[in-house]
Amino acid sequence: MAVYTHLGAEELAALIAHYDVGALLSAKGIAEGVSNSNWLIETDDGSDGGLNAGPARFILTMYERRIELADLPYFLGLLDHLAAKDCPVPRAIHDRKGNAFRMVDGKAVALIEFLPGVSPTRPTPAQAGAVGRVLAQIHCASLDFPHRRANTMGFADNLAVLERCGEAGLASIDPRLPDMIEPAREAAALDLSALPQAQIHADLFPDNVLMLGDKVTGLIDFYFACTGPMALDLATTHAAWCFDKKGNYLPELGAQLLAGYRSERELGAQERALLPEIAKGAALRFVASRAEDWLDTPDDALVTRKDPMQFVARWRFCEKHGEQVFA
Question: What is the 3-state secondary structure (H, E, C) of 219-255?
Answer without folding.
Answer: ECCCCCCEEEEHHHHHHHHHHHHCECCCCCECHHHHH
